[in-house]
Amino acid sequence: MTDAPAPPPEVPQLRTLLLTDLCDSVALVEKLGDANAAELFKRHDSLVLELQQRWRGRLIDRSDGLLLLFERPIDGLGFALDYSRGLRDLGAQRKLDLKVRAGLHVGEVLTWRNSDAAVQVGAKPLEVEGLAKPTAARLMTLARPGQILLSAVAESLTHRAARELGERGERLLWKSHGRWRFKGVPTPLEIYEVGEIGHTPLRAPKPTPKAWRDIPLWRRPAALAAEAALIAAFAVGAWFVTRPQPAIAFAERDWVVVGDLRNLTGNQVLDESLDQAFRISLEQSRYVNLLSDLKVRDTLVRMQRSPDSRIDRATASEIAQRDGAKAVLLPTVAEVGGRLRVSVDVVDPTSGATVLALSKDGKGLDSALASIDDVTAQLRDQLGEAMDSIAQSAQPLPQVTTASIDALRAYSLGVEAYARKENDSALEYFNRALELDKDFALAHAAIMRIYVSRAAPALAESHLSAALNHLERLPKRDQLYLLAWKSQYFPQKGDDPARRWKLLAQLYPDYYAGAANYAWISMENGDYPEAIKYLKSAVVANNPLRGYALDQLARAELAQGRYQESFEYFRQSEEEFGASPGLGSALALAASGDLLAAQRLIDHRVEGNGYQARPADIITRIAVLAQSGNLVEAASLADQEAKQAKPESELLYHDFKLIALSLRATEMQDADLQSELLKCASELSKSVSAKPSVERSDYAALALASVYLLQRAGLKKLPNELQGLVRMAERSSDATASRMAGLIRAKQLLQEGNPRLAVTLLQSQMNGKELFQSRIVMRDALDRIGDSEAVLAQDRAIAAARGQGYAEVAGSSIFQPLNVADAAAAMRRIKGLNLDRSTARL
């Protein structure tokens, strides 16, 4: 260009180089046309100029891309990020996808200025050379569209200074793409990617002939192929040597169906006894879940078959598919070569094929239980359970059941009767098992369970005590189960039944007794969210008592004011109960305010065929009448039920008697009512110490409820005997008793003319778990103070909490009808106040 000599280069300087390339620029010009493309590039140049000034960059060269020089690496990164964002905005205005690839490197460069004559004929004003320039160019070439690649030096300096980019610097993504080799460069270079969330591909660059991954020798394609061939050869050889049998994809806590035991020995004593022994042995596992007899028979009924149908291979497979079980287990006992063989076939329920067969031989009948233990241990191992878990949980069957085959057979027949809901027959079988082995702890536990379901705590207590005396003869799960009942029936200082049930639920989440009982205690304590959390884990299809869990969940949702959810859970519960659906849906309808629909449903079911009244359903009928304002009829129904219950259950008699008195206490305050309540309170107070420990908490709740009703009936000063009861309840670890004692104290303060102290006391108890009646006393105290706005707010809260009033189970549900009547009275007061205000405006 000129004969003038080139100016000498300056001293090498450390600079940041940024090379960019506008992706598919030629195709862009072809698509837009020359005129539109020229207009776009003018906007592009304006963007570049603005960013140069913002980030202090010097443009060295440009064509489809840019070569810029920066003093600081963070300025180069800021330019690249803003340039990429600016191109996206330019493209969005024209519905184009404009992306740039960029390479950023820090290194020494030589710069010199061309002569004016050279610049006049087209040379660049400033020349830049040095190894840093081709390095940045290789980085830019490797980058994918929208990607900014940095060398390790540039990444270190920019990452450390990223906070200078402000808030955007905190949202940058940084990713290493490993070591790369560049042609002509002897040492590998670590490459990094940086970009904004959602706008950087975060993908490894594509290798080119001039840049490729630095891969160790053993990871190169030829070496990998050789290694793969070697591994495949070993694998094929190992497979032919071991030839594993086909298995089912079984995961922890999956379910299995156990078919009826095939007894090929001709000895009928082994029929039920070994079948039950196999179940007990396998139930010790926390890895494998067995569908219970109760659930299997329920599924048979849904299949329109007799619940006593034999569970053979085909039937068990169909049950497994319906209930989502992964495998069917078919146990067999046979005499082979003079030895007793216990075996089990594992069947795929989908195909009906046997995928695994296990067996153990022993000498004579005495070997049967040990052989079952051996087979179940093999089975647990084959299904994937860890050996440590098997060793820790597996206890010998004679230790956790009985050494007597006859006693085990009687127990097994009792379990079958219990599954058919024939509790009287089940009791006979369990008692026969105890005659044959008086220390058979599982039989004691089974009898206790029946008496608990019959609300006969004294009888349940005796068998619980017997089982606890032989706790070591129970599987670990059943030990936890009985210890939870022990903490409830025989509470020691510091013992917490809720903690015991919660532990059982957490350790054995598919044994639903833990979750259901912990949820019930949570509801008694007013902790409805906690109850809902655990009940939702118990309403699964495999729970044989799913209907009860659904009913309990519906009541907990009702207490939270979620009426639609409550109605749906009640409906599902009623479907589970079939011929005896109960009145839960009516409860949800009434709580939501639809009294007509609730009463129609009650009338329809009570008058229907096969209706069996449960105490909870009777209380529902009484509460709906109370909400309707029919307090006299409601009290009369409660009196009638009390008379019918008296010969059978003293507790139920007191429940309905106090319900009747509570409804009368809302209507009147006279000496006769006070006298009757005082008599009840005195009798119940004496019963607290006279009754067995298992019944004391129930009688304490009844006695405290009668004391509160006595206060509502107008009694100003409590007798010393009842004051002592309240003091004892205040010191009690029973949450229900202490809350009721607090309620009584607040009511006493109010009646003594100290409404402000009553409010202060109640406020300390308002933690979301308070009794519904605490709101009533709070409202009365505020009314006595004369704070009309606070009274109105409390009335609104009472009316809105009608669901809690219906669902509250503290104190044997005695307060439910009273709660509902009080909520209805609050609603009437609100409506009356609104009417008065409307009239005043007229």
TrEMBL record:
<dbReference type="GO" id="GO:0009190">
    <property type="term" value="P:cyclic nucleotide biosynthetic process"/>
</dbReference>
<keyword id="KW-0802">TPR repeat</keyword>
<dbReference type="GO" id="GO:0035556">
    <property type="term" value="P:intracellular signal transduction"/>
</dbReference>
<feature type="repeat" description="TPR">
    <location>
        <begin position="407"/>
        <end position="440"/>
    </location>
</feature>
<dbReference type="InterPro" id="IPR001054">
    <property type="entry name" value="A/G_cyclase"/>
</dbReference>
<protein>
    <submittedName>
        <fullName>Peptide modification system cyclase</fullName>
    </submittedName>
</protein>
<dbReference type="InterPro" id="IPR030966">
    <property type="entry name" value="Mod_pep_cyc"/>
</dbReference>
<dbReference type="InterPro" id="IPR019734">
    <property type="entry name" value="TPR_rpt"/>
</dbReference>
